[in-house]
Write a structure and sequence with these properties.
CATH architecture of the largest domain: Alpha-Beta Complex
Number of domains: 2
Largest sheet: 5 strands, mixed, barrel
Helix content: 25-40%
Number of strands: 17
Shape: globular
CATH superfamily of the largest domain: Spore Coat Polysaccharide Biosynthesis Protein SpsA, Chain A
Order of helices and strands: EHEHEHEEHEEEHEHHHHEEHEEEEEEH
Distance between the termini: 48 Å
Strand order of the largest sheet: 6-9-7-8-10
Bound molecules: guanosine-5'-diphosphate-alpha-D-mannose, magnesium ion
Radius of gyration: 21 Å
CATH class of the largest domain: Alpha Beta
Number of helices: 11
Structural class: alpha/beta
Length: about 350
């Protein structure tokens, strides 16, 4: 049975103010199902492996949230990062830990903040990915058919081959600019990188040694300390030394051993208010209303207020109104690109 590495240390600033630095989106019950995105990720993978094979990698700041939300997972399987160093460090840390336990391990790496609608289809694709990952040094990613020139994703161009389940990747481009994204979409042989990966622990370690040797060296040296009382001190030091690079830039763009399995399981990265708006039930005016609200001449908007305050709205089209704790945000529903700025500026206002 495979090991599952859940990456749950990102900050998800595009859902601000609903999702905050103190509680990023993976820890929220964003869809109102009673389970948070992290819990839903865990539930999904429980179908293919056992609790003792999960590793959740998160920031020290969020460790208590992981413990609270996944009490089933033993504390030794929650890996805590002292600094945010992006996904390459996160994956390297978990991989070396797993390799120390089981050098023959198969591993699936997954984000913690996605929505997957067709679960049985998903499980089948994960199993296919794992069998494709049996070949030495192959790195398998799961690709999703794109429907818009999104610039926040990785794009995978693959060699069209009807017979092969895992298709050889020709190019991997992380977060292209708008012009490139449009070309990719139109070209037809590109898929989005879902951010889910399957490989043998040996294969990914080999890739780290080849493409990020400094990272490999640091976490390899950690072998002396893992699962001892000195692990934390070593990791604290290690994280000050590793570069802040995602796995996509650090390895996936560079390796020529990447293969893609095409997935069609109702995937959404829930990356923005717009994508959440698409998924949620809407009223006649195409509004998502999660508030005690009166709406007049209002369309295509998202109104979410975390209190029982009555909200009266008139004349809006394509707007977001979100009140969470002490912040009230009113902006265009598609203002995605502005969010980084909002968060930074809001900090200076206290
Ligand atoms: N432990 C840990 N530490 N987890 C992290 C860190 C970190 O420093 N940084 C990010 N993560 C987690 C996030 O919580 C999320 O679950 C996952 O890793 C992916 O990180 P994001 O920051 O959300 O990446 P992205 O959305 O910009 O891009 C990735 O996902 C896209 C699909 O959603 C890339 O893999 C793209 O290629 C891909 O298309
Ligand atoms: Mg993401």
């Amino acid at each position: 049975k495979p090991y599952i590495v859940i990456m749950a240390g990102g900050i998800g600033s595009r859902f601000w103010p609903y999702s905050r630095h103190e509680k990023p989106k993976q820890f929220l019950d964003i869809l109102g199902t009673g389970r948070t995105l992290l819990q839903m990720t865990f539930d999904r993978f429980l179908n293919i492996t056992d609790v003792d094979r999960f590793f959740v990698v998160t920031n020290k700041k969020y460790e208590h949230l992981v413990r609270e939300q996944l009490p089933e997972i033993p504390e030794t399987q929650i890996l805590s990062e002292p600094l945010r160093r992006n996904t390459a460090a996160c994956i390297a840390y978990a991989s070396y830990k797993i390799a120390k336990k089981d050098s023959q391990a198969q591993v699936v790496v997954t984000p913690a903040d996605h929505l997957i609608l067709k679960e049985s289809n998903f499980i089948q694709k994960i199993k296919q990915s794992l069998s494709a990952a049996e070949i030495e040094n192959h790195l398998i990613t799961i690709g999703i058919k794109p429907n818009r020139p999104e610039t926040g994703y990785g794009y995978i161009q693959y060699i069209v081959n009807e017979k092969a389940e895992a298709k050889k990747v020709k190019t991997f481009t992380e977060k292209p600019n708008a012009k490139l994204a449009k070309t990719f979409l139109e070209s037809g042989d590109f898929v989005w990188n879902s951010g889910m990966f399957a490989w043998h622990v040996k294969s990914i370690i080999h890739a780290f040694e080849k493409f990020m040797p400094e990272v490999a060296e640091i976490f390899e040296e950690g072998n002396t300390y893992y699962d001892t009382e000195k692990e934390e001190a070593y990791i604290n030091k290690a994280y000050t030394l590793v570069k802040n690079v995602s796995i996509d830039y650090g390895i996936m763009e560079k390796s020529d051993q990447v293969y893609v399995i095409l997935g069609d399981f109702g995937w959404s990265d829930l990356g923005s208010w717009m994508s959440l708006h698409e998924l949620q039930p809407k009223d006649k005016g195409n509004n998502v209303v999660e508030a005690n609200a009166l709406l007049y001449d209002t369309e295509n908007s998202y109104i979410k207020v975390n209190s029982d305050k009555l909200v009266v709205v008139q004349g809006l089209n394509n707007y977001l109104i979100n009140e969470s704790d002490n912040v009230l945000l009113i902006c265009k529903l598609d203002a995605e690109k502005k969010f980084r700025e909002f968060v930074i500026d809001a900090k200076s206002k206290g």
